[in-house]
Write a structure and sequence with these properties.
Structural class: alpha/beta
Number of helices: 3
CATH architecture of the largest domain: 2-Layer Sandwich
Order of helices and strands: HEEEHEHE
Number of strands: 5
Low-confidence stretches: none
Distance between the termini: 61 Å
Number of domains: 2
Length: 135
């Protein structure tokens, strides 16, 4: 704060902010940042080793199993019997890599129907099972 002792003040203190020290500090900080930023962005040139990139094996399309409320099973929107389901699952389990199996059970379906599908998948050797839900 600046104090004024001019004779016309009548002894009152003058309360205003002196901006000169604030400007000096800001200019010093500006100069410091202007000097340090180029140093921080300097990079070291390095010769990195080269590798032969291997193509990632294509993942087969996921199998979507839908269990309806009445117990019917759909393999990718196609209705199938439980015997045909077991055969298809065995074939899918022998594929390399194995496809993911997405199980979508109807809310009104009995748990028994979904459990039978899961047991069939386990017996056939499928390892990648996932449940489909709505957010």
């Amino acid at each position: 704060m600046a104090f004024s002792s001019a004779p016309e003040d009548d002894g009152n203190l003058m309360s205003e902010i002196n901006m000169i020290p604030l400007i000096d500090v800001m200019l010093v900080l500006l100069i410091v940042f202007m000097i340090t930023v180029p140093v921080m962005t300097h990079t070291v040139q390095v010769q990195l080793p080269q590798t032969a990139a291997r193509a990632e094996p294509k993942r087969p399309e996921a199998i979507r199993l839908t269990v309806a409320a009445d117990g019917t099973i759909h393999w990718n929107q196609t209705p199938i019997s439980s015997l045909e389901l077991a055969d298809r699952m065995r074939q899918a389990a022998q594929a390399d890599p194995q496809p993911d199996v997405h199980v979508a059970g109807d809310r009104a379906a009995r748990y028994e129907y979904v459990a039978q599908v899961l047991a069939t998948a386990q017996r056939s050797g499928l390892r990648q099972l996932a449940f489909v839900t709505e957010p």
